[in-house]
Amino acid sequence: MVLRLSTLFLRTLRDDPADAEVASHRLLVRAGYIRRAAPGIYSWLPLGLKVLAKVEAVIREEMEEIGAQEVHFPALLPKEPYEATNRWTEYGDGIFRLQDRKGADYLLAPTHEEMFTLLVKDLYTSYKDLPVRLFQIQTKYRDEARPRAGLLRGREFIMKDSYSFDIDDEALEESYQLHRAAYVRIFERLGLEIIPVTATAGAMGGSKSEEFLHPTPIGEDTFVRSAGGYTANVEAVSTVVPAALDFTTAPAAEVHDTPDTPTISTLVDHANAAAPRDDRAWTAADTLKNVVLAARLPTGEREILVVGVPGDRAVDLKRIEATIAGHLGSGGEVAVETATEEDLAKHPGLVKGYIGPGLSLEDPVLGADATTGLRYLVDPRVVSGTAWITGANQPGRHVFGLIAGRDFGWDGTIEAVEVREGDEAPDGSGPLIAARGIEMGHIFQLGRKYAEALGLKVLDRNGKLTTVTMGSYGVGVTRAIAALAESNHDDRGIIWPRNVAPADVHLVATGKGTEVYEAAEKLAAELESDGLTVLYDDRPKVSPGVKFGDAELIGVPTIVVVGRGLAEGVIEVRDRRTGEAQNVAVDETAAFLRRLTAH
Amino acid sequence: MVLRLSTLFLRTLRDDPADAEVASHRLLVRAGYIRRAAPGIYSWLPLGLKVLAKVEAVIREEMEEIGAQEVHFPALLPKEPYEATNRWTEYGDGIFRLQDRKGADYLLAPTHEEMFTLLVKDLYTSYKDLPVRLFQIQTKYRDEARPRAGLLRGREFIMKDSYSFDIDDEALEESYQLHRAAYVRIFERLGLEIIPVTATAGAMGGSKSEEFLHPTPIGEDTFVRSAGGYTANVEAVSTVVPAALDFTTAPAAEVHDTPDTPTISTLVDHANAAAPRDDRAWTAADTLKNVVLAARLPTGEREILVVGVPGDRAVDLKRIEATIAGHLGSGGEVAVETATEEDLAKHPGLVKGYIGPGLSLEDPVLGADATTGLRYLVDPRVVSGTAWITGANQPGRHVFGLIAGRDFGWDGTIEAVEVREGDEAPDGSGPLIAARGIEMGHIFQLGRKYAEALGLKVLDRNGKLTTVTMGSYGVGVTRAIAALAESNHDDRGIIWPRNVAPADVHLVATGKGTEVYEAAEKLAAELESDGLTVLYDDRPKVSPGVKFGDAELIGVPTIVVVGRGLAEGVIEVRDRRTGEAQNVAVDETAAFLRRLTAH
């Protein structure tokens, strides 16, 4: 059916919406694809639904191609399954919770691992039933603290989520790789540049995980890549760990008064003057900065801990958050922040500005044997035998040449500092460079976490009950549309990739006579019978300038103008992206467009 | 793509689910279309989604046929628009409410009048933009007190809802009639018998309204019809009002002691003995029963009122609820119940068992001039001049021959008693008969209620701002699937109408040799390339009995058996509904099935 602008439910806007920070948000609203209903919650107008249907169709095809079967779960779900996996607690404020009229607890599902696990448990009993791969394209809910950027970070949004169920790790790896390949094809077909990066599993649990990032300066995720092909989310980069050093001949550490050393640089100068080393001068990288942090567990508990990092690097709380849960023995997301004055006041052994690794000692060389009882984690660069300048746990005093593993110990090692451009890639593929991206997809090898929690076991080849191993895989469907608009626009509007455009052709009739409208009608009918979708600007009293402006704003990649040229027997075909125009003979226009738009 | 039972995510069940009361619920679960996730909340399995997609496609086509444009609104919506129309309060416990992390109030939308009104207000400004008709196929939420019967009354369900916006009443009537005709076509194409009945607007507000009921003994709605073609929801039946009588010559009413008249029948006997009439004997229909009711308003207030009805009829609280709001000047749904002892105790003027229309009088013939201040509504049969036997507001005493309009008045007339089979249809088309049905669709002329509340005005032909008039129209999509299964099954399973079946053909291969599987594969491929959808039971180790049982349970209308006959060059084609089977030559089977299944 030809979409006529004279009746299409659409009003383009000249002005940017007040709340729009990014181009995709501005343009999708202005061009009449979406409208805001509440913070992070959008309504879809007719043109928006056309794009959405195209994106969904591509995803659906590629999922079916890898043998995934479509199902559909409710969004409104009871608490119990999420309690069984502890996510009811772990999600904290991040989900919408509600009660029904009887007072039973429900949530609006942010993701469906539990329900898929229970459904497979309900239906299947044997290894012969596996593998099974299931997917849905469904509305998800997250109570984001800061919904932003239109569809990029919404509170009600559409995801394709799929789940694989396998009998063993090898089969899981196959399901995972099939999904990975399907995702590469999906984004390629959508025309969306994607970089798969190694990621951390986060609240999902599980072992192996990759994010599909769309590189864009407005992305919220920082990732790194090397010339040799390494890519990772910054949270997932592992530090190249230096070799341990022999400390048998290292001199004893010395405690010094360190007046007037307000900065690391002045402290280093002081050390080089007061306790110079034979082999090389002290640098900022030799200082050990002990940072007091507070971890908020999903249970609501607050643990105060200390992290020791080289003084030349800034602490990166997001990297700490990515793996801290394991150290604390906690499932789920743990939020980490700098300890407050109030936290510090509860630990008088911490001498602010002079905190050492041995937290409550008179003599810091005794090291970790006599701490305040606070957990002490260190950056991976703190290996046995390294010598450090650090606080002496006494006001106004530092210790120089404190040897890791000799003079102090630690409870664990954690990736705690910023990744910098120029750092070595962990696989030796060269120095890292940084970029920003949006997470468009995420694939996880969940392993047996959910199956164990919910009792999903099947009989194996030997008739023994065995726990199923799972993967989960997500694509942000509505987010993909925003990313496409973000990366395909100019200052006049959107420029859709052909595969997702709301129509194949935007046909504009301009002029006062009836001939142009008659010719345009005829062309529209011909194109439609050829299977092309046509957006036809048939508005009689609208100026050519407004019509062209709307066409460029809406962003169908091919704009066809039936106007002045008609008298000479030609129709103009414009490329929205390049702006190039050519005249095509009226009789040949339909065939020309058919070739041009053939997917 | 051929759906293979060897890999299809499906397990049929031998046993009925414990919570299933009706056939559609039992069979949709047992045949693997849906699974319960929570009370009134269901997950859709692959076969279920196929049926759902077909039903949605029919609805979408018919909506587009009447020029309705598809949009999509969020399910999670802020309180404010629903407050503007007072529905936030009026819905009471019937909707799911929640708060976000900032404490802002939200609801899961039960229907979207407010949001569509605001969207049209956002986009349109002139009569030239009208009419506009918009629809969505979307997930709705209602916190039903008693979710039941599987998909028939759920808490999360899919509806097609549409809304029309017109400049005047005449144009609204046209939008309404277009929808009405589209609904008739939709249900005809789905194969679902429907009776459109006159209905009351209920909480929706507005003037004209019709329900599309699917007649079935398990329906929750009672409706009536006459031989002459009248149909109505019982709540909407209007009583044939008798003509007023001249009372100038009527004798004065008499108050009598009425001992030993515990029933209406004994009271009538007493009247005929103590105060006989000249023209005809008193009957139960001449007694006026005054019933004290309590109305709970959406605001939480409780109003005690009295309703006077003929003693031969039972009060019908649902019929009272259908129109009481207007009498009380209340928007929204008002619940009505019999007054409690506690309510009565607060009104000592009400002499239990002897309540008359003049509620606190010594002398009831003084009528309504001196009531207790309680609202007094009467059945439409109480017309001026009618003579009644009723309570005298004194213990142990009744009054005989109390004349309506002479001896007592009333605050209003209300449809308050049961409709009975045999009552006259209000349009004179003969006596009514009663039946039960399920509401499959509902169409409303809303008028200007929502547009006024939300300020939707456009410029009319004269450049004057005028309030838009609206209609709203709903079809229960998931409910339609349940109704189809309910009305199309036998004791072995579902029998889908062809237009909504999950596949065109259910192909069963039976036998141990490879030939049957090869022949079946070949046929499946051929059918698929002809555009037919095939559900193929290719399970190698499953007995023919189980395969046929599953085929009959699943309910594809045509079952094709490649088995024993293959040796003689034939394939069996069975009709699921009639059980009739015929053998078709192998080479001709595909063509035969193409003809058979041609829609």
UniProtKB/TrEMBL annotation, chains A, B:
Residues 35-497 form the Aminoacyl-transfer RNA synthetases class-II family profile domain. It is found in: Cytoplasm. GO terms for molecular function: aminoacyl-tRNA deacylase activity; ATP binding; proline-tRNA ligase activity. Pfam families: HGTP_anticodon (PF03129), tRNA-synt_2b (PF00587), tRNA_edit (PF04073). One of its GO terms (biological process) is prolyl-tRNA aminoacylation. Gene3D superfamilies: Anticodon-binding domain (3.40.50.800), Bira Bifunctional Protein, Domain 2 (3.30.930.10), YbaK/aminoacyl-tRNA synthetase-associated domain (3.90.960.10). GO terms for cellular component: cytosol. It catalyses: tRNA(Pro) + L-proline + ATP = L-prolyl-tRNA(Pro) + AMP + diphosphate. PROSITE patterns: AA_TRNA_LIGASE_II. The keyword DNA-binding does not apply. Catalyzes the attachment of proline to tRNA(Pro) in a two-step reaction: proline is first activated by ATP to form Pro-AMP and then transferred to the acceptor end of tRNA(Pro). As ProRS can inadvertently accommodate and process non-cognate amino acids such as alanine and cysteine, to avoid such errors it has two additional distinct editing activities against alanine. One activity is designated as 'pretransfer' editing and involves the tRNA(Pro)-independent hydrolysis of activated Ala-AMP. Homodimer. Belongs to the class-II aminoacyl-tRNA synthetase family. ProS type 1 subfamily. This is Proline--tRNA ligase. It comes from Arthrobacter echini. The gene is proS.
